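S1.2 Input.
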Amino acid sequence: MFLLRLLSRIPFPVLYLLSDFMYFIGYRLVGYRRKLVKKNLRNSFPEKSDEELKRIEKQFYKNLCDYVVETLKLLTISETELRKRMQFTNLAAVQTFFNQGKSIIMLASHQFNWEWLVAAGSLNHPVDFVYQEQSSKLFNNFSLAGRTRFGAHPIKRHLVARESISRKHVLRGVAIVADQFPGKGRDKKYWTTFLHQETAFHQAIGQLAVLLQYPVVYCAIQKKKRGYYEAEYVLIDEPPYEKGSNRVVDYYAKATGKVIEKNPAGWLWSHNRWKKRD
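S1.3 Output.
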């Protein structure tokens, strides 16, 4: 961690040179997960030409490499710099609920740069974020160090229901990134059409909404230019939610698909999202 913190102090221009080098190695020479990325893009955008898909593929890998160095930078970036580089629009969508003394659920997808989203969001209001503990102690500590730098509170995934109830007295946003495949055997799945494919989503986000009866806001991230992002808060549902309802999951899937279609190179295509079928 000491070495990582030292490296994170490298200025942005130099870090982006490192990102360019990583792109050359990872995309041009090694071809990191290129077959998977090509398959995911082709299945998700059957209407696009090979030339269009190639452009998206290349830009995705550039964004992925930028994500790596930007996440490293999160260890030492100043509050002022982070505020400048991750800006939020439609803050009224969440502030209205906080003014009423209501906590909210904040959903996001793996749009670059979701790591900055958690850290920067906690500068505006208290944030609890749900995370999956990693097997690597170093990677786990690295991830938590960046996300919690400005006060965000981590909740382990398997404890989310218990901790969410125990912290109901805390006015906050409960942040969840839940667009990956719910692959664990105990994970309940909600199936819907997403990017032209039958896709499983985590049913647990709907169950959490029913349990807490919080309004649900989606954070739509767009990369404006290198190192600068904009996150728009969009209200997608409000209580009451009936027991067994999957309404929130359905709205979340639609919101995620919409932001991907608007900026396809900004999503994490190297994840094996459709590795299993119903």
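S1.4 Remarks. The first strand starts at residue 86 and ends at 89.
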